[in-house]
Amino acid sequence: MKPFLLPALLTITITSVQGGEPNRTAVRDAIQRCLPWLEKGAAGSTEHNKCFTCHNHGLPIMALHEAQNREFEMSREVLAAQITHTSKHLDRGLENYRKGKGQGGRILTAGYALWALSTANHKPNETTAAVAAYLAGDQEQRDHWIQAGRRPPTDGKEFTTSYVALRGIVDFGDPDDERQQARIQKVRQWAINARPLDTEDSVFRLRILSLTKAKADVLKDSVEQLVSEQREDGGWAQKTDMESDPYATGTVLATIMDCGVAPEKTAVRNGVSWLLANQRDDGTWYVKTRAKGFQPYYESGFPHGKDQFISIAASSWAVRALIRTLPTTLDK
């Protein structure tokens, strides 16, 4: 099956005007300064861990591939190695996927891995088909997917889990499989009726609605809800009792520009300004972890010590968000 493509990216041209709005050169520079860290963190994780990780492989692959398509300076070899690493990880679990068992990390790992491969234009094969079938069959009695976890903001989130599972089915599933297609429609209806509890929920609810082609007014309402939660400083927070942070801000900006509904340009510009103002001198974005560690600690090469995993995820989202504000053809 041909990988699903999001609606055409909306281009929000950032120009230098009175009031301190960022210019295009500043946006490009911010992206370029972060890319080597994403490469280092992804490659370092591969050296220490044979398994695929959503934070150090999935999200960096997406950001690096999009940067490559926009002609930024980066290592094609490093990106290709991470794509191969992800594909081989799924290949090792092929028999268990065929049996409906999956791998460690279950829905999130399988879904994020397929999402990364789809973004990188990986060709469908027997493994991706088996993973998609596993996702379609898992928890089939439910109208969405759930997965327990102790690593917020992603783990244990029903909207996130459901989106990555659904995305895998849409990108690599069988369009003639009635069971798979029925699952897609069931999840869309669940997302329309379900109410998000925090920013992560709102972001991935919008992604589900866009992916399943919900009605325009439903998408518009979801976008407006996210925009209404923007803080006065221009950023977004993971929860109402938290301050603006790069993870929440990056996910919101990238998502509202992906969904096919024109967002309020002022909201996008203010969000971009917040990201540029909060980028660290080294080129990364920092977020303090809320996760309870349960795996042996290791250094991937990305900065910020025990906060490196959420920070590389946030940095990947920030890069993806900033790329979406640039014209299709970059100025030379």
Can you summarize this structure?
The protein has 332 residues and is mainly alpha-helical. The chain has one domain: Glycosyltransferase. The protein has 13 helices and no strands.
Description of the structure:
It is built from 13 helices and no strands. With 332 residues, it is an all-alpha fold. It has one domain (24-323): Glycosyltransferase (Alpha/alpha barrel). Helix 2 packs parallel to helix 5 (106-119), helix 2 (54-69) packs parallel to helix 13 (308-323) and helix 8 (178-193) crosses helix 9 (199-211). The two termini are 36 Å apart.
**How can the largest sheet be summarized?**
none
Low-confidence blocks of residues = 1-20
What is the alpha-carbon Rg in Å? 19 Å
User: What is the tally of beta strands?
Assistant: 0
What's the pLDDT, averaged over the residues? 91
> SSE string, helix = H, strand = E?
HHHHHHHHHHHHH
Name the helicity range. Answer: 55-70%
Shape: globular
Figure out the total of helices. Answer: 13
* CATH class annotation: Mainly Alpha
Give the termini separation: 36 Å
Beta-strand fraction estimate = under 5%
Q: How many domains make up the coordinates?
A: 1
What class would the helix/strand composition place it in? mainly alpha
CATH-derived architecture: Alpha/alpha barrel
- Determine the CATH topology: Glycosyltransferase
Q: What is the fold's blueprint, element by element?
A:
Layout: H1 24-48, H2 54-69, H3 76-92, H4 94-98, H5 106-119, H6 126-137, H7 158-172, H8 178-193, H9 199-211, H10 216-228, H11 246-258, H12 265-277, H13 308-323
Helix pairs in contact: 1-2, 1-3, 1-13, 2-3, 2-5, 2-13, 3-5, 5-6, 5-7, 6-7, 7-8, 7-9, 8-9, 9-10, 9-11, 11-12, 11-13
